[in-house]
Q: What sequence folds into this?
């Protein structure tokens, strides 16, 4: 869907029409509007507003670093399981702070 | 900060076999040497034979991490010759995370994956030309700029 551009309208910082599902991750909610049942980024006032919102969202998202991810601690075992499950292995090298 | 997010956990556990290595633990010194590990965070996508297919360094917030994770998996399948699976992954990045930092790279390699599958020139040039309009400042636009006339 193509939405006509007005002088004050920016779709997002790189000019991409954001599809439903991705929109609320990348554009401030107050800048979204419903259009025939689908979210569209039709009223983003300016790029700096989006940038400020993203920085704020980054801060809000920070929480204690706990998760339920079943991390293994042996890359060879991860590879064996990856082969058995038809997946790839993801190895996260980290340094505790 | 990123891993507690439910979407991130789901993406990791559904797509990968996850493994975490504490680089400060002396017991892991041999693994650190073997993978030539130098700086954290350091994430590697490896195939079942232990061959590294893709890597990235540095913290990413959840919405960037999710996009990078999808792209990294797609890179993995591309290097293993599963071009269709790779193309699906790159397309998912562009559908779900079109403003992510790795989106231009995903668009570049979406073209590559489709072309390697079909050998149709338009499958390569079509997505590449979108880089000019969608991500004009991207290094990935530059890397295909020889096709721009």
A:
């Amino acid at each position: 869907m193509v939405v006509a551009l007005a002088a004050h309208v920016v779709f997002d910082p790189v000019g991409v029409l954001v599809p439903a599902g991705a929109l609320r991750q990348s554009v401030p909610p107050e800048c979204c509007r419903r259009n025939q049942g689908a979210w569209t980024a039709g009223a983003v006032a300016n790029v700096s507003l989006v940038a400020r919102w993203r920085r704020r969202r980054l801060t809000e998202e920070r929480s204690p670093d706990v998760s339920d991810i079943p991390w293994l601690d042996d890359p060879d075992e991860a590879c064996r399981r990856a082969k058995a499950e038809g997946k790839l292995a993801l190895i996260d090298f980290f340094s505790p702070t | 900060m990123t891993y507690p997010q439910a979407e991130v956990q789901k993406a990791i556990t559904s797509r990968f076999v996850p493994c975490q290595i504490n680089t400060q633990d002396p017991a892991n010194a041999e693994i650190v040497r073997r993978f030539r590990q130098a700086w954290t965070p350091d994430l590697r996508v490896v195939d079942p034979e232990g061959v590294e297919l893709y890597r990235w360094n540095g913290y990413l917030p959840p919405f960037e991490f999710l996009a990078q994770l999808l792209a990294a998996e797609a890179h993995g399948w591309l290097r293993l010759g599963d071009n269709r699976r790779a193309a699906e992954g790159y397309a998912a990045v562009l559908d779900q995370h079109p403003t992510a930092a790795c989106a231009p790279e995903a668009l570049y390699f979406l073209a590559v994956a489709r072309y390697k599958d079909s050998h149709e020139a338009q499958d390569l040039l079509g997505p590449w030309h979108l880089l000019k309009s969608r991500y004009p400042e991207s290094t990935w636009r530059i890397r295909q700029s020889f096709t721009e006339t």
